[in-house]
Amino acid sequence: MSSYFRITLMRSAIGLPRRTHDVLKALGLKKRMATVFHPVSPSVAGNIMKVKELVEVQEVDRRLTKQEVHLERKPDPGYYVEKRAGTELRECRRA
Amino acid sequence: MFSRTTLARALALPIEHSSARSASTTFRACLHQATSTTTTTTSQPEAPLSATPRAQTSIPIQQPRFLTSSNSIPQTRADVPLNKQPVAPTFDAPLKVSQSLLELLPNLTSQKPHFITAHLHDRPYLLTAGDQLRLPFLMPKVKSGDILRFNRASVLGSRDFTLKGGAQYLDERLFECRVRVMGFESEPLRITEKTKRRRRHVQKVTSKHRYTILRVMDVKVKTAEELLEEGAVVVESADSAANVELKA
């Protein structure tokens, strides 16, 4: 069973050494709150350890697409159209 | 240097562990597993005690699945599952209500008028019947005269009683909140003057937003009899789907 690291950049690397920037680039993290998925492997784990103060890590079962990550944050609309404008009038005419 | 080696050892463990668990491992994976096990066993005494058990007990978190109407994994921004779209819901399971809710509900239903804290896109709007509501946005794909149902509420109440949803929203089968689209309003034209450096020119940026106006037709809390008629199931303890309580 393969698993993945879900890595989210919580703090920016602005003002930190060049090496830190490079590690984030290697992980594919370009801006804050960006989320990437990498298979669990020692090399990725080592990269995470280099920037452990900046990222939040979870071990998850599968990769999510970008849209799925977005949908996690998307709230429900909270409404739906019950009746269209014309239908009430038509019902009255029929009756 | 020491820390790096110990770290690698600690992190090599979960992979070896997981590959050993699955039956269908390829030959290369088996090879890798064999090598990693030998390294870990030889260096076991040196490994830090704290790192080893944590690595072994890790279970990957199961992430929620959002499936689109065609039962596929959403890829683009156009793929939005039905429960995140403004469409009428369909229910698989009947509404579960606790006994205490059924006993206390008549207090609330008999006392009119009711208010509701309805959530549109997770923003709360405190409404009662007859209110006019100007939304801070233009609602898409609706025309004036349409009747909308609000189906996400955190609080339902009257003068003395409230029905609270707690952490999640109240079940939408407990109440009816209808609003009618009255029309659209636009704000007065706003002109912002922008100036750039070293440029003898003032740029004028205009904006004129449009907003939807709604009128609340009715806010109705369904009575206990109505709920039971619609097929609500009475659950004894408080672990019902509608995790609610009445507070005087």
From TrEMBL, chain A:
Q: Which UniProt keywords apply?
A: Mitochondrion, Ribonucleoprotein, Ribosomal protein
Residue ranges annotated as transmembrane are none
On whether Ribosomal protein is a keyword of this UniProt record, the answer is yes
In the record, which residues are listed under signal peptide?
none
An example of a Gene Ontology cellular component annotation for this protein is: large ribosomal subunit
GO biological process terms, semicolon-separated? translation
Q: Where is the Large ribosomal subunit protein uL30-like ferredoxin-like fold domain?
A: 5-55
Q: Which GO terms describe its molecular function?
A: structural constituent of ribosome
The source's superkingdom equals Eukaryota
Q: Where in the cell is it found?
A: Mitochondrion
Under the heading InterPro entries, the entry gives: Ribo_uL30_ferredoxin-like_sf (IPR036919), Ribosomal_uL30_bac-type (IPR005996), Ribosomal_uL30_ferredoxin-like (IPR016082)
Check the record and name the Pfam families matching this protein.
Ribosomal_L30
Name the family the entry cites. Answer: Belongs to the universal ribosomal protein uL30 family.
Q: What does this protein do?
A: Component of the mitochondrial ribosome (mitoribosome), a dedicated translation machinery responsible for the synthesis of mitochondrial genome-encoded proteins, including at least some of the essential transmembrane subunits of the mitochondrial respiratory chain. The mitoribosomes are attached to the mitochondrial inner membrane and translation products are cotranslationally integrated into the membrane.
Q: What is this protein called?
A: Large ribosomal subunit protein uL30m
Automatic annotation (TrEMBL), chain B:
Q: Which InterPro entries is this protein grouped with?
A: bL21-like, bL21-like_sf
Cite the residue spans of the region called Disordered. 35-57
What is the protein name for this chain?
Large ribosomal subunit protein bL21m
What's a Gene Ontology MF term here? structural constituent of ribosome
Which GO cellular component terms, listed alphabetically, does the Swiss-Prot or TrEMBL entry include? mitochondrial large ribosomal subunit
Please give the Pfam families that the UniProt record associates with this protein. Ribosomal_L21p
Superkingdom to which the source organism belongs: Eukaryota
- Give the record's family classification: Belongs to the bacterial ribosomal protein bL21 family.
